[in-house]
Amino acid sequence: MSGLDCSYIEVPIRASSISSLDIRIPDQGNHQLSGTFNGISQYNNENNNENSTLFGEFYQTLYGNRLFNTVSYRVLPSRKEIVLSPVLLNNNLDIKYHPIRLMLQDAVKRNCVTILESANKQDTLIVDLITEAGYLVSMSISLNWFVESEFETSKQQIQHLSEWYTSSRPFAFDLRGAFFMKSLDSKTNIVSLTDGSLFLTVRDAANQDLKIIPMASRDFFGKGQSIIPDHLKVGEIDVSTNSVLDAVVIANLHCVVTISINKNLQIWSLDTGKLLMKQSFSQYLPGESSSLLFSEYPPKQLIKSLGTDKISIVGPATVRKLYIFKINPDYTLDGLKEIALPFSGSKWLYHSYEIADRSGQLRLWILWCLGDNYLLQHGKIADGIADEWSESLTICATQSLLQQDFEAQVSNASTIEKLNNVGLLALFNGVPYDAYTIKRALTIFSRYFKVEDSTTSLKEAVLKTVNMNGKLEESKVQWMRFKNVCEDIAKSDGSLVSLLLDQSLDEDDSFVYLMKVRGVSIIKKNSLLGSLSTGSASVSESMRNVLQVEDTSYSVALSLAKLLKQYENEFGSPGLLEIYGKLDIADDVNIPKLMESIFGEVVSKCITKQAIQQLLGNLNSIPDALNVMQFLLRLITFNPLDYEPAKNVSWSDCGRFLLASEGRINAGFAKRMAFQLMLVLVTVDICDPAIELFESSFKLYKHTKFVLSSFSLSLDDTEKLVTEKPTDPSNAIPFNYIAKRYGKGALIRNGSVNLLMANIFKEILQDEFTLYVVSSLLSLDANAATLEYFASFIDVDSPVGKVLKGFVLLKLCSPTLHQYFVDAADAITEYSDKVTEKEQYSIKPIESKASLLLVDSKPSYFYNLGLILQSNGSDNEALRFVLDALETKNKLQDASDDSDIVSKIFELALKLNNFQMAYDAILKMDRSIREHPIKQFVYKLFQQNELPAVLKYQFNEDFDIVDDLIYTLGETSAAGGDLQSALKYYRTSYALRLKEGDYRAAAESLYRFNCIASDKLKRKEYSDVKLLVDNYLIIFNLLHTMKTDDRWLIKRPVGIRTETVGSRNDISLGSNDQNKKSKAN
Asked: Boundaries of each Nucleoporin Nup120/160 beta-propeller domain copy (predicted)?
């Protein structure tokens, strides 16, 4: 950092598309362009983001189009692949885009790719490139090809190669190498050669044929007396010092301005290529710099146009100035301004810059690099006022500010399971580490730690690596090491490639895009919360005016913010980690006790009395410090003008990623500030105002911690929770909740994105958002550890929260589940008609289940709980709740129909083999509906080999149902040839009839078996004669208990037929005629 205010902040963005339109370009030497070719495919690859970039740029359309305004191209390290990607935040048409990958047969020359916008074909980009084989290739790319759903139509167009592709050798690039190529306008490119020569390529009106215009200088081959060498090495290329480094077109004057390595500043005719003016840039430099080469490491951008007749040029590295010139009609130059660049780090190299004139004020962005480190500075330059300079907070700097939270959670994790949950939430949240980063970290770890890799997912591989010893403390060390490795990899992948000032929206202060080796970032205005958190000494004039309306001074708020940070630094790391641990396991029930605990057990041991006295003295010097503290707590939702964004504007993947990244950053800042406030409040007198403010700080601390974690939860294309790989923040669960407020989305602009974020936080810092996330996790069948973590943030004083907490306990198979729902019954049922619209929306993911409990009847509440538990396979708990329903109904003397409850008790009791309870439930049923339950009851007894148990139950008036069922089961078994089972049923029928005192019917059961068995005996299909004899003896004994005339039995034909279970109506009874009676012989 250079010590400037961080008025801006870098936020990563990323498109989530895993598909790409791949076009395999034929060999450039093949001129047979007629007909069609088949090198086109729609390739689905989750590793699209793994591509590193050798060089690339952004291009912003000039004419505007109906799809998007900005596109990037990236040349991959092989130099045989070029990836074109749309870059947009607002997706007004709600279209899904994918990148286009151009796959060449020959390598592209470094820095020899340009993108032009066709002036004749609407929505068409022209990609020009020079290959190592010396071909100049031109491709007309329709923007419709980027539309994922238009693949088939695009494929048909692409197949006709000659309509969009040309390849030629207009120049001997193999003899005179190209140094760079740059687009000047929609028709013209300029090409700089390594030998110092220069020419233009001009496209005709039909965008087909190219015309070469050499740019000749009379003294091109002359070399005067100079200490500047003829050539130098740029990488491995020998380049003439006459070679042009950069060029810009001045359309109004039909000229091109160039600057070379040896500092020649030249103006050329755009029409003829003739040299119009040449002078040495040295005359504008200090004397000691006049003989130095302009740049031995050619930067991307040196010269820019400003309006119709002005240009800006960055001076050599040792000068660190920006020069503004006016070009006169006679092509002479007038020096207008020299702007001293504020950064003076001698080892930092200039990379590139952007400049724009906004209402007479110059807005300048300048990028410096040192290895993988970079610094982006912003200047506002206007005549008559002092230059204003600030810088952007980088992703690495932001991550370091948020690192302490991760360290605290790792340190305070009490089990391996909780530690793993912390680690996975931090590493797999998609910002700033993607799958590629984590894979590379695993590869590095494998060099030092031997881990057998037989895993099937990235998540399993990480868990196996960090937990290889299975010991909690060692795993904590490994998690920290692994995250640090990921941080280093992300930093190296964050090396800068190019810079773009977004001019697609008419804003004084526009977004800035940064292309990196992997990924893209946006530079946006820092929020007021971010400015105070990073200690920026100033904010914009408009924000100062707003703060005055709020009766708050920025300088006073900054003084307090610095004091908070200074006091936090008084604590050592162990002390802070201990406080984090106390806060993370605490609830907000007894705030004074929590404050006393923190002070007594930590603060009093870590902070000296002198430090406390100094803190109190500093606080007294801040006017109205308590109100300023309250103001700091409101910063994350600070929207003083009640700004409402334009709604129903769809967000693109990049836009959603931006909001997710910004949300995490702001939540991290607010959480840190709330933590710092609590440190101060426990140190001062624990009075009512301090307790109240501590409670507010603690609530914000918990909410922001929850928000940080919630952006780690995302869905895949099938709407399932992503668990085995890094998540996609652009598809995070919070966006589903935010959609309720904004519809498809809200317009993202740099001038209003902070107010949009304040609006979003106003929604997601509410308890209803917590409920929504937990209900979403329940509906997505999240794992127990994730559910338990997120459910710990639920406000259990909320009846709706109690419902969700109970569902989580159900998921966790908690032994306290039954008592929890019993205790919560009154609160939930009494609130059923008071559920707010927001609460209704928060439980929408599990609405069908939650609505079963949000009823005004306690019996219905318990009964529905039984249904839910039963559907979850928890029959024991389900039975308990249904019994509670019946008991509660009786206590309330509720005379309404209870047949559903009794039937459910019977069903569950029978399923659990609680036969006595099932029997009791049958007796409570109305006789008209008993038949089916009785049959189920008897069947279950038979299934459980508890057939004799049927005898202990009194069925009384329902005896016929039971008797009919058992006898018919015997008939059915016999008909099927299973005499062993038939004997069991007939004997049970015999015993049951005997118990009822119907001796003849009892004897008939055994007699029926004997008749069937005897028939089989004749056919030698049965052999147990003794059993038949024993049965006859029993039958005779029973008959002899009757009068002589009553000693008869009904004999049915042995030809057995199967009857409907429970029906004996077709059995014919014999007459009293003695000849029609059968003796038991």
From this structure: 70-527
Rounded to whole angstroms, the Cα distance separating 376 from 372 reads 13
Residue 871 pLDDT exceeds 80: yes
Whole-number Å distance between alpha carbons of 1026 and 1017: 12
Task: Report pLDDT digits (tens) over 935-968.
Answer: 898 888 888 888 778 888 888 888 888 888 888 8
Residue length of the chain: 1081
The two three-digit tokens of residue 689, written as one number = 């105002």
pLDDT at 286: 84
DSSP per-residue letters across 316-363: PTTT-EEEEEEE-TTS-EEEEEEEE-S---TTPEEEEEEEEEETTEEE
- Are β-strands 496-501 and 512-516 bridged in parallel, bridged antiparallel, or unpaired? antiparallel
Kind and range of the H or E element at 520? strand 520-525
Q: How far is CA 1066 from the centre of its chain?
A: 70
Distance CA 648, CA 971 (A): 72
6 in the Ramachandran plot: left (φ > 0), alpha (ψ -120 to 50) or beta? beta
- Per residue in 370-408, is it b (16+ CB within 10 Å) or e — as a string? eeeebbbbbbbbeeeeeebbbbbbbbbebbebbbbbbbb
Sign for the pseudo-dihedral over CA of 255, 258, 264, 265: positive
The fraction of the chain above a pLDDT of 70, given in percent, is 92
CB neighbour list of residue 604: distance below 8 Å, 6 or more residues apart: none
Neighbours of 26 (CB within 10 A): 16
DSSP type of residue 953: S
| CA 50 to chain CA mean position, Å | 18
Q: Over the chain, what is the mean pLDDT?
A: 86
The rounded radius of gyration (Å) of the Cα atoms in the chain is 42
pLDDT category at 996 given cuts 50, 70, 90 is confident
Question: pLDDT tens, 557-585?
Answer: 999 999 999 999 999 888 999 999 899 88
Tens-place pLDDT, residues 1-48: 556 788 999 999 987 766 789 999 887 555 555 567 777 887 766 555
516 contact partners, CB below 8 Å, separation of at least 6: 53, 493, 494, 495, 496, 497
Residue 1002 buriedness (CB in 10 A; 0-12 / 13-18 / 19+): buried
C-alpha–C-alpha distance, residues 24 and 105, integer Å: 8
314 alpha-carbon distance from chain centroid: 41
CB-based contact 801:771 (threshold 8 Å): yes
Other Cβ atoms less than 10 A from the Cβ of 309: the count is: 15
Positive or negative, the CA dihedral 597, 600, 605, 607 is: positive
To the nearest 10°, report the CA torsion of 978, 979, 982, 984.
-110
SS3 185: coil
Using DSSP bridges, classify how beta strands 108-117 and 124-131 pair: parallel, antiparallel or unpaired.
Answer: antiparallel
